[in-house]
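Reading group handout, session on sequence-to-structure problems. Before we discuss, look at one worked example. The prompt was deliberately terse, the way you'd type it at a terminal:

> structure Carboxypeptidase-like regulatory domain-containing protein

The input record follows.
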Amino acid sequence: MMLNNNSKYYYLLFLIVLSGFIQAQNTAAGKIVDDRTNKEISGVDIFINDSNKPYATTTSGNFSVQSDSIIYKLKFVRKNYTLESVDITPENANNLIVQLSQAKVSSIDEVVIHNERPKYKNKKENPAYAIMQEVWKRKRNNGLDKFDTYTYKEYEKIQFDANNLDSAFMKKKIFNKLDFIFDYADSTARGKMALPIFLNEAIYENYGENKPGKKTKKLLVAQKTSGFQDNQIVTLTAKNLYRDINIYDNTLNYFDIGFPSPVGSDGFSTYDYNLLDTISVRGENAYKIRYQPKRTEVLAFQGYLYIDTDNYAVLGATLKSTQKININFINGISTELEYDNPDENTFLPKKFITEIEMTPFSKKKTSKSIVAKRTVDYSEYEFNKPIEASVFTRKEEEYDDKFVEKDDAYWLKARPDSLSKTEQGVYDMLDKLQQTPKFNRIVKLYETLGSGYYNITKGIDLGPIFSIYGVNEVEGDRIRFGARTYFTRNDPWRIQFYTAYGFKDQQFKYGAEARYMFNRVNRFMIGAGTRRDVMQLGVQLTNDDGIMARSFASSTVFARGENASLSSVNQTNVFAAIEPWKNFQVRVDGTMQSIKSANPAGFNLMYYRNGDLRKTVNDSHITISLIARPGAKFSQTGIDRYEHGTLAPTIVLKYTRGIEGLFNADFNYNKLQFMFYKPVLIGSWGKTLINFEAGKNFNTVPLALQNVIPGNQSYSLAANTFAQLNYYEFVADTYTTLHLEHHFNGKILSFIPLIKKLKLREVAFIRGAYGALSDASKAINVEGFKYSAPSEHIYYEYGFGIENIGFGNLRIFRVDFNWRGNYLDRPDISKFGIKAGFQFGF
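And the output record:
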């Protein structure tokens, strides 16, 4: 099955076992006055927490409210006054003085307030349309691009809360000897319990230069995490949930899924807009526009836009997902955005708050969930001041763990707002939990499921546990055990090994590799390894030379037809790699290997060399690889890094030189290969995955060293392979392949009654390959007559898939239906096939 990095989803299961409860405030009282005259005001609507209905309307300046739920916020609304929101704490609950400010007079002649969605004959009759037209006409750009240089400070706070927990859940046996955590819990507006379980604070200093050359640097100068500092799963989960967004873009990226922006120039194709009022936002007159999707089944937002009445700049916006949001593990998303507008053409981010509610199974509002909240404050902007060139140079100390360690005095000064009482308690609670053996056992269990490795003692992990069992035609049932060194997430060195045994061929296999990194800045590292194993070659064109790279040998449990085309590989590799520039790696590999058929009776790799018949290919080659990942983000600085989810492309250029005579190698040859992979958001229509590969062998080599167009005879999903090709059906000296796969995110199926309730998503794909195979390359192999390249026509496949199959929030199963487009007259082919598998993603 196709398995992606799924650590964040396993960790959600761990978070849900935590809960808590403390008594909180459910009454409030005080006085409401005019902020200029100090006179009492009556006729004020009072809203409790986030309710859309007023609790009461005051008949005098005094008020008193009481609720069965916990009151943590009150909102005060009166005509001709700006809305006032007050956070409620035990200290201020019964002596509130609420000052309301009179709203500024708007420049528009008349405002029609609509509480219901109005009906218009056409969009031009809608007054909101005229306003949005002005916004599009004066579309603003990020102000950072207009200055020669700029600097600013960024404060980021990420908090996870276990939500919707009750007293019955608290009494479960799992909390024996852990009940002290409930001292740190709080209550929600619905009367349920919420337990803060993770808090990460970070301070960044951002530097940019637009002239004479474009340079940027985001320097992490301080970080504070509530426990889990060495837990690769939790830290990756926290950082991996969020993307930077620009409200003026047509498409907003959440979880690498495209949502149409309500401020985008094509917003009216997705949203209905309703002009509600004019209000004052931070001293500026603003139109308040409510927007909501025309169809609730699509991935879209609802909320409010605040547009400056003079220059039509976006002062702020709220974005909230609909109740029918169709994203795995997600119950809801909400974002609040604030912008500064220094001039007519630009904006600057001021404050972003994003809250994500996650549950592993059910989408019910009452389900136990994790609420992940990220707050980012942007401040201390400075422009056109000289910046030393050395600022943009990466330095060794920046990658030291101690570089970001700061004392409490630093954080008191650095935070734009002080932490709440519950936020302060998170640090203390997690420190205590880590001293509890039972808690550490729970963490260890979920770390094992997430990483695939089980820690047996300090510095030693067993695994990967998901590779223990496999089966193939040569080995029969196959058992594999492995281990690695692991001290911290930032280890500069690592040793890995495995051993495997096939019960049919009764042979032991093994592999081992050691790597060491000398410098964290340019990531200069060296490594060496060796392996002897049975492998399925010909399932990847641009392959990884590393010894511990994933082998396809034991992946096929169920397959169409017989797969006898397995190879016995004895390989030794040494390599050196360096990143002279960020996200650009230069790697040099030296490889010595011998390859022969693992099943001579069913798969012939014999070839002619100087008139002699040979069954083993001896090969020694050097490979130079240039690997670019522009825009990729990583969490750690050690020899192994955990990558954040991004839309970053992967670009690989490889040159391989075979050297005859070196360690008895049989052939001189030259090979050039190129690969480009990129996910692309196509607005509200979903995401396209593009994978293009091309390559050429400039010399004649036997089948074991040739380019094989990747087939897939299993019934499982396998990325960048051809579902209806047999293994080794097409072999090419020169090749190009293109895979296009588009995920519609339910855009089409949401129109179909009844079907749309299943929340299925559609996928469409087409794959093509073209190549050539010389007569010399055919003649060198004993059975060369069997092999050919797709040179007459471009070989192609097409089909569609249904993904998001499952229940509740757990929808990780996918089924593909594949058709072979041509070359239909060949024997033993499959014209149609079904593939299925799990794909862990939002």
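Points for discussion. First: The longest strand covers residues 149-165. Second: The two ends are 18 Å apart (CA to CA).
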